[in-house]
């Protein structure tokens, strides 16, 4: 079987253990050797980030220093247009070739609203979807069309994702990390400790930069 290459996108405003620990658990469950973090510049489905692209990229570098699992792809930070996932996956597929098994990691919350994404039906023609559990979200989407699409493409075992380049959805039993970037930003604004919520190196960077204080 081929190695499965995985991509994990987000605003990372800031990157925290809900991101990192969840993906580390996912890697252990599915045998991933490398996960590429993909920070986006203009997220189409959510408010604009508080931290600048440069600051978010630097926080990611602090967070993964010394880790063999993670690397970073900053291509979306160089775009002024919205960071459509399908566009990025097209460029990644062109670079990595038609036969490379490729997976895009999303949370359960994203899966439930995937039919609101730009050209969402094309995603599985470019990659697999690896889904992590998220606290307080239902297991099934409200949309019957989306439910049928998920059921049609469901993989029962993660090893199936190595046997073809794209086309499957695997919902992993990852641990729940009840932490969010929004809650962390609120804590930082109130001068409350964020120890245990994000890496010490990221806390140090935020403190030095005076981020999230206003």
Please give a structural write-up.
With 214 residues, the protein is of the alpha/beta class. It has a single domain (5-178), classed as HUPs (Rossmann fold). The protein has seven helices and six strands. The chain has helices at 17-30, 53-64, 85-96, 108-112, 144-153, 181-189, 200-209, and strands spanning 5-10, 35-39, 70-72, 102-107, 128-132, 169-171. The chain has a six-stranded parallel beta sheet, sandwiched between helices. Helix 2 runs antiparallel to helix 7 (200-209). The radius of gyration is 17 Å and the shape is globular. The model has no long low-confidence stretch (mean pLDDT 93).
In a nutshell, what does this entry contain?
It catalyses: nicotinate beta-D-ribonucleotide + ATP + H(+) = deamido-NAD(+) + diphosphate. The protein has seven helices and six strands.
Q: Please report the number of helical segments.
A: 7
**Oligomerization:** single chain
For this structure, what is the CATH homologous superfamily? HUPs
From the alpha carbons, calculate the radius of gyration and give it in angstroms.
17 Å
Shape: globular
What's the pLDDT, averaged over the residues?
93
Helix share of residues?
Answer: 25-40%
| Count of domain modules | 1
The number of distinct β-strands equals 6
Strand order of the largest sheet: 3-2-1-4-5-6
List the helices and strands in order.
Answer: EHEHEHEHEHEHH
Question: Low-confidence spans: pLDDT under 50, at least 5 residues?
Answer: none
CATH class: Alpha Beta
- Report the β-strand fraction as a percent range: 5-15%
CATH topology: Rossmann fold
